TrEMBL record:
Its EC number is 1.1.1.47. SUPFAM superfamilies: NAD(P)-binding Rossmann-fold domains. Belongs to the short-chain dehydrogenases/reductases (SDR) family. It is an enzyme of class 1 (oxidoreductase). This is Glucose-1-dehydrogenase. InterPro entries: NAD(P)-bd_dom_sf, Sc_DH/Rdtase_CS, SDR_fam. NCBIfam families: PRK07231.1 (NF005559), PRK08936.1 (NF006493). GO terms for molecular function: glucose 1-dehydrogenase [NAD(P)+] activity.
Length: 261
């Protein structure tokens, strides 16, 4: 646990499910103020807010589509109005779908790029603008993917969006380091989230994915949340502009494990 996160205000886009939910709970355990952006029903959010409050943190849910400029502004405004600050911005919202590249329509392409890349841009821009206005030496954390470096056929739009997040993170880190604003990126590997539940429920498909992971198991959302807490804390105060791969070694060419090749 990181004592310096107590009372800090953390915004998490896509915070109601999967990795976002695990991060919201972790920051609740850190006794932070958590702004949970969601896009869908609010029943899960209400239960999540109650659980965070039971840990001693504070929380509020804010509905919004991160691909829409006005919705992102609303999320940032909610952090200020509810808790009087914005110290940590986590751009986590993302979508994916499988489409052969030659069959991908412009609409298919734009929806994923709009949510994953444009949504992260809007979150970064508005959070940094707020931090500059109120002279907050805050932290921005983007959630990328191993597919910022691993090509992924049939997921061209997704891989392109994550590659863009990588360079956006590095550029913003360089630009705003003089103001004490740190910008970093987490690239999860295969994580057991609702979006992957059907695939991992099939033993053969699960085994196929595990064969790509040197540590040999599918990651848990809580393991990504732990990385986010560290990057948000003062324990990582000299870290900016990095992609931290939390992937069980997936990006380390596992086919060469054991001296093959």
């Amino acid at each position: 646990m990181y004592n310096d996160l107590t009372g800090k205000t953390v915004v998490i886009t896509g915070g109601a499910t999967g990795i976002g939910r695990a991060m919201a709970l972790r920051f609740g355990q850190e006794k932070a103020n958590v702004v949970i952006n969601y896009f869908g029903g609010n029943q899960e959010v209400e239960a999540l807010v109650s659980r965070i409050e039971s840990y001693g943190g504070k929380a509020v849910g804010v509905y919004g589509d991160v691909s829409k400029e006005e919705d992102v502004k609303k999320i940032v405004t909610a952090a200020h109005e509810q808790f009087g600050s914005l110290d940590v911005m986590i751009n986590n919202a993302g979508i994916e779908n499988e489409i052969p590249s030659e069959k991908m329509t412009l609409e298919n392409w734009k929806r994923v790029i709009d949510v994953n890349l444009t949504g992260a841009f809007l979150g970064c821009r508005d959070a940094i603008d707020y931090m500059l206005k109120y002279k907050i030496k805050g932290t921005v954390i983007n959630i990328s993917s191993v597919h910022e470096v691993i090509p992924w056929p049939h997921f061209l739009h997704y891989a392109a969006s994550k590659g863009g997040i990588k360079m956006m993170t590095q550029t913003l880190a360089l630009e705003f380091a003089p103001q004490g604003i740190r910008v970093n990126n987490i690239a999860p590997g295969a994580i057991n989230t609702p979006i992957n539940a059907a695939k991992f429920a099939d033993p053969s498909l699960k085994a196929g994915v595990e064969s790509l992971i040197p540590l040999g198991y599918i990651g848990k959302p809580e393991e990504i949340a732990a990385v986010a807490a560290w990057l948000a804390s003062s324990e990582s105060s000299y870290v900016t502009g990095i992609t931290l791969f939390a992937d069980g070694g997936m990006t380390k060419f596992p086919s060469f494990q054991g001296g093959k090749g």
